[in-house]
């Protein structure tokens, strides 16, 4: 195996485990360049009818297979009732498989982004094109349930 192939396998392993430069994953061999951090681009916050759309948090944007997504805060209902909870939609990169999408959904749940987790989400959706599938977590449903 060539040095480039070995480096590619090592980098892929680091990305799969969520490690990146500066993540505290140990020290690099002397003279080795730090591993690049590969993150989806941040999005600006926008508001609409009392609700808002934010970009994904950095710890989500930097996970493997994340292309982009949104964190949504619902506007109040017409009668002024405030809707509790937020929802997050994560779009996966082209070429992501169903197994990888499901693994990403489970990882996000472990990080507290699933329904009832520490980040206060009521709905989590992960997926993309047909080959990636679509997985959703919502109240009274199994976590990361496949819907497509």
What topology emerges from the helices and strands here?
Blueprint: H1 3-16, E1 46-48, E2 51-54, H2 58-61, E3 66-73, E4 86-92, H3 98-110, E5 121-127, E6 134-137, E7 145-146
Parallel strand pairs: 4-5
Antiparallel strand pairs: 1-2, 2-3, 3-4, 5-6, 6-7
Q: How is this structure best described in words?
A:
This protein has 148 residues and is α+β, with helices and mostly antiparallel strands. It has two domains: 1-38, no CATH class; 39-146, no CATH class. 21% of the residues lie in helices and 24% in strands. It has three helices and seven strands, in the order αββαββαβββ. The chain has a seven-stranded mixed sheet, covered by helices on one side. Strand 1 and strand 2 (51-54) form a beta hairpin. It is globular and about 45 Å long. Mean pLDDT is 77; it is low at 1-30 and 32-36.
Shape: globular
Q: Average pLDDT, to the nearest integer?
A: 77
Low-confidence blocks of residues: 1-30, 32-36
Question: How many β strands by DSSP?
Answer: 7
Radius of gyration (Å):
18 Å
Relevant terms:
single chain; seven-stranded mixed β-sheet; 3 helices; 7 strands; globular
């Amino acid at each position: 195996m060539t040095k480039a192939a070995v480096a590619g396998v090592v980098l892929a392993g680091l990305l799969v485990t969520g490690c990146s430069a500066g993540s505290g994953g140990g020290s690099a061999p002397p003279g080795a360049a730090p591993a690049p951090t590969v993150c989806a681009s941040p999005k600006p916050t926008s508001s609409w009818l009392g609700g808002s759309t934010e970009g994904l948090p950095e710890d989500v944007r930097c996970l493997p297979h994340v292309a982009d997504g949104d964190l949504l805060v619902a506007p109040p209902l017409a009668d002024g009732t405030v809707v509790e909870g937020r929802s997050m939609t994560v779009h996966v990169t082209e070429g992501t498989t169903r197994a990888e999408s499901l693994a990403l959904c489970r990882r996000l749940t472990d990080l507290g982004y699933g329904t009832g987790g520490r980040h206060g989400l009521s709905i989590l959706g992960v997926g993309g094109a047909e080959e990636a599938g679509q997985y959703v977590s919502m109240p009274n449903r199994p976590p990361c349930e496949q819907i497509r």
